[in-house]
Structures are given as structure tokens and as C-alpha cells.
Write a structure and sequence with these properties.
Elements lengths: L3 E6 L6 H16 L2 H6 L4 E6 L5 H8 L9 E4 L16 H6 L4 E4 L2 H5 L5 H13 L3 E6 L3 H5 L3 H13 L4 H4 L3 E4 L13 H19 L7 E5 L4 H8 L6 E4 L6 H12 L3
Parallel strand pairs: 1-2, 1-8, 2-3, 3-4, 4-5, 5-6, 6-7, 7-8
Helix pairs in contact: 1-3, 6-8, 8-10, 11-12
Bound molecules: 1,3-dihydroxyacetonephosphate.
The site of 1,3-dihydroxyacetonephosphate has 14 residues, from strand 8.
Length: about 260
């Protein structure tokens, strides 16, 4: 079985107390399942992305977990400057100082609600790579764009912007997350064929842009991933894992996504 990346984007949920509760449950579930314990690391890579205010609690709580089973810690957003007069923003060195190894960049909620442009997102991707932190680069089309047969144009534009000026070495360090906007938080996931089609297209484009047909590329699917659709989606050849919103807020439903895929208790 291929390695699965299971990433949980908590969005604007989970205070410090809830975060500690999640880690306690998470540790208990992994310790109680030989299948999960065996998969951690080699076959399963887990990361969680709490809001900024819960990162320190998450980092602290992860110290109570067996090192092998602690999820990677990531943030949901960042500004590209290292410090200075940028009220309300947080920098990459600050996040690294809290134990973050990953940062979500360009989530559709940042693009649509907060007006982030392809250009700004590309600067964030570059800043993450310069600071040796993994950017989890999100992209995907809206419903109107899909219905207007613009999906591949939009995905291509977003990927080209993010990869402009990046080397192949840099391109392979990015985790890509295809998240069709119409599938996010709606309960209506893309079908496995729809998700496969765009993820396969993305991999080919990324490799073409990087000038390397063999480049290892990790592409996740996100948008209403739940335990009951996980097996079908994660079994698709071009999909390496899931970026999960709602179902990642409880350790049980989050880990059941992998259990469902791998067929373990
Ligand atoms: P949902 O799983 O709640 O649809 O959210 C997906 C998402 O936006 C993850 O980044």
C-alpha cells in the first residue's frame, strides 16, 4: 500500500483546552490500535494545523505522545516577511519557534474571504522554502469555474503562479493540496474520478514546469473527506492523501479516515 498523508486543517476551531483534549484522544487511539501504531511514520504521515492561538498548547501536548506517533505541527497561514511593522501578522521564524514544520498557504478561504492573490501566495510559498518549512499549497476551482469548464485553466494558473521561479528541488518540497472550493465544508465531496482527474493533471503539470518527468510530487485531495468516502478517494492512483477540515476536529473521525482506507481496526 502507498504512503498516505493525513493532514487536518482545524480552521477557526479548537481553543487550547480542546487542543489538549484532541492530543489525549489521539495518543489513546494510536496506542490502542496496533494497525495505526504500525502505520505511523512509514505508511502514514499525520499533520495537524491548529489556529495560531493553540499552537503552543499543541506543541506542549505532543510531548506526551510517543515520538513516533506525534503528528507534525503546522500553521494555517503566514506572512512572508521575517519581522517588522505588520500588525496582526505572524512570521515563519515565529512559527518555527513554536515547533511548526508545515504551513498551509493559499487556502481558498484565504483567497476568497481575505482576498489573497496568486502573487502574494507565491511569495509565501517562496518564503517557506527559503526557511526550510514545508508549504502546503492549496488550489482549486469554484463551482462557477467548474460549470464554465474552466477547472483546468484555473488549476494551471494557480500552480504556474506558485511555481514561477522555483527550481525542481524546491517544487518537490511543496505538498500540493487540490481543494475544489465547491466541495469544501459542503458535505459534497468531488467524486473519486473527478479528484483523480485533477490530481493527475496537476502532477503532470508540476513535473512539466519543473522539467523533470520523474519528480516525486505529493498531491492531497481536500473537500468533505470523511471516513465513509476515504477509501474510494485515497485509493485513487494520483491522490497521496487528504487535507481534512470538519472531520479532523475529533481524533476518532480523523483517524478513522486512515483506518477506512487501510482496512484496520
Ligand atoms: P472540509 O473537510 O470541512 O470540507 O474542509 C476541507 C478543507 O478546506 C481543508 O483545508
Amino acid at each position: 500500500m502507498k504512503k498516505i498523508y493525513l493532514y487536518g486543517n482545524w480552521k477557526m476551531n479548537m481553543n487550547c483546552e480542546e487542543t489538549r483534549g484532541f492530543y489525549k484522544d489521539f495518543g489513546g487511539q494510536v496506542a490502542g490500535s496496533s494497525g495505526l501504531l504500525g502505520a505511523m511514520g512509514e505508511a502514514l504521515e499525520v499533520a495537524v494545523f491548529p489556529p495560531f492561538t493553540s499552537l503552543a498548547a499543541a506543541e506542549e501536548a505532543s510531548k506526551n505522545l510517543d515520538k513516533r506517533t506525534a503528528p507534525f505541527l503546522g500553521a494555517q497561514n503566514v506572512y512572508f516577511e521575517p519581522k517588522g511593522a505588520f500588525t496582526g501578522e505572524v512570521s515563519i521564524p515565529m512559527l518555527k519557534n513554536l515547533g511548526c514544520t508545515h504551513i498551509i498557504v493559499g487556502h481558498s478561504e484565504r483567497r476568497t474571504i481575505f482576498g489573497e492573490s496568486d502573487d502574494l501566495i507565491a511569495r509565501k510559498v517562496k518564503a517557506c522554502l527559503d526557511e526550510a518549512i514545508v508549504p502546503v499549497f492549496c488550489y482549486g476551482e469554484t463551482l462557477a469555474e467548474r460549470e464554465g469548464n474552466k477547472t483546468f485553466d484555473v488549476v494551471s494558473r494557480q500552480l504556474r503562479a506558485a511555481l514561477s521561479g522555483r527550481t525542481s528541488e524546491e517544487a518537490k518540497k511543496i505538498v500540493y493540496a487540490y481543494e475544489p472550493v465547491w466541495a469544501i465544508g459542503t458535505g459534497k465531496s468531488a467524486t473519486s474520478d473527478e479528484a483523480q482527474e485533477v490530481c493527475a493533471y496537476s502532477k503532470k503539470l508540476i513535473r512539466d514546469l519543473a522539467g523533470s518527468a520523474e519528480l516525486p510530487v505529493v498531491v492531497l485531495y481536500g473537500g468533505s473527506v470523511k471516513p465513509d468516502n476515504a477509501k474510494e478517494l485515497l485509493s485513487m492512483e494520483a491522490i497521496d492523501g487528504a487535507l481534512v477540515g470538519g472531520a479532523s476536529l475529533k481524533a476518532d473521525s480523523f483517524l478513522r479516515i486512515y483506518r477506512a482506507y487501510a482496512g484496520i481496526d
